[in-house]
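User: I'm putting together a small comparison set for a docking exercise, and I want a reference complex before I start. The sequence is below, and the ligand is magnesium ion. Could you produce the 3D structure with the ligand included, as structure tokens?
Assistant: Of course. I'll restate your input first, then give the structure tokens for the complex.
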Amino acid sequence: MLAESMTDLAAQIVAASDPVSRRLVIRVRQPLNGIGEWLAASAVSVAAPVGDVRVFRDSASLADALAVNGAEQWAGRDGELRLLACLQAGDIVIASEDGGEVHAVGVVRGAYRHSAADSRHAVDVSWWTDTLPQRIHAPPGWRYQEICEARREILQSLMMEGRRIEALPEPPFGEIVSRVAAAGMRLPETIVRRYHVALRTRGFVVLAGVSGTGKTWLAELYAKAVGARHLVVPVAPNWTANEDLLGYLNPLDGAFHATAFTLFLEGAAREHREAKEQGRAPIRYHLILDEMNLARPEHYFAKFLSAMELRSRSADGEAAVELAPGRSVPLPSNLAFVGTVNVDETTHGFADKVYDRAQLVELGIPREALVAHLGDRPHAVRLMAVWDAVSGVAPFAYRVLDDVTAYVETSAELGVRWQEALDEQVLQKVLPKLKGNDGRVGEALARLAESCGDDLPMSRARVRTMFDGFQAHGFASFF
Ligand SMILES: Nc1ncnc2c1ncn2[C@@H]1O[C@H](COP(=O)(O)OP(=O)(O)OP(=O)(O)O)[C@@H](O)[C@H]1O
Ligand SMILES: [Mg+2]
């Protein structure tokens, strides 16, 4: 197995428990003689006096076999073995003991295997132990030896809480710039500097720009470059109130249902308090609200907008936000907010109060940078001619360039000429975005008709149809 860093593993574990790609999670009791054996073997492994568990029809027959083999200690533990046998690569396992003490969290790497020689039943696992053991507040229904969902926020808080690394001194600005560039991001140094200073002075920065200009990527890369912990929270269009972001207090059981966002806030506040007690600089926390204007920030972010104002006026740079009645969290000075916004007709404009409280940094798409990004690829010149024709009304950026390049290169492996592949890409990725009754759309179509020569016939034909439609009805549309 490849050696993996604890950070990579932690990221995999948290990603695997994302609700979108929900995985099954088994909690495993650690072996009697401690977890060391499992960690050393990179596995969950138990010795039980039966053969391959999968040949037993049901739990009862497995229980019978265990009883026949006289292993008293195995009475009632057939369920455990059956669960082990149904684990699959990608599942998450949590090794914990009574009282919610977690010893290790791991990603399953292979299917169940049985060794007849030593009656071992095992599954390979990459174990993450960085800041463990730690006690967690296990939710009701969370029992040993069962497959259940491990909520993402529990894993996430487990992987961040208790991380007692010293805050590293922040690297000098030049070093930050080279770390961002080393990741392959094309960004003028002035933009990195503006982002850097804006974060320092305001603590709330909005990164704006066309889709695929690197807004989310910059927020993440910069946080890594300065050694800040970060959390990307995707904003959903149906968010209308503070509770969508913060969680809520359930009136029935009186329990507060936290979100990853609130756990992260509490983590930042805890770190700030502890750093102060220990007389050291706190680790920075960057909370990234991704696609922040899919919903209205004045609604779901209202509490923060006012708390940020209080924070900037207070002597110690702190203000508190009430998460729910009776539960509030301070907004400490080591916490910064970053929002990414993609201003187009599908998103909400911001109220002035949002701009007033933020620093806005726009990521542009300079033509020279796109040309440099395409390099000497065969389709570079023609693709830039398409860009020139449409950039005023339907601009595209690095993500689309990378997609087109990947498409052209994959097509070439099947013997398709780049001209043909590019023709398909203009049709599939560029033309659908050209729509509306703005006179500039008509001009863009006219320019495009010219720049799609004989070698982009499908695109040219479609552009002509769209242009005719625009002239006849004053409206352009792909469909
Ligand atoms: N400045 C850049 N230099 C090189 N590649 C880039 C740059 N920006 C974006 N990319 C490429 O495009 C991909 C998408 O970037 P990212 O997700 O950060 O865009 P975004 O601006 O957040 O877009 P959206 O508004 O659609 O969320 C990146 O993973 C990277 O491959
Ligand atoms: Mg993004």
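The longest strand covers residues 120-128. Confidence is low (pLDDT under 50) at residues 162-166.
User: Thanks, that's exactly what I needed.
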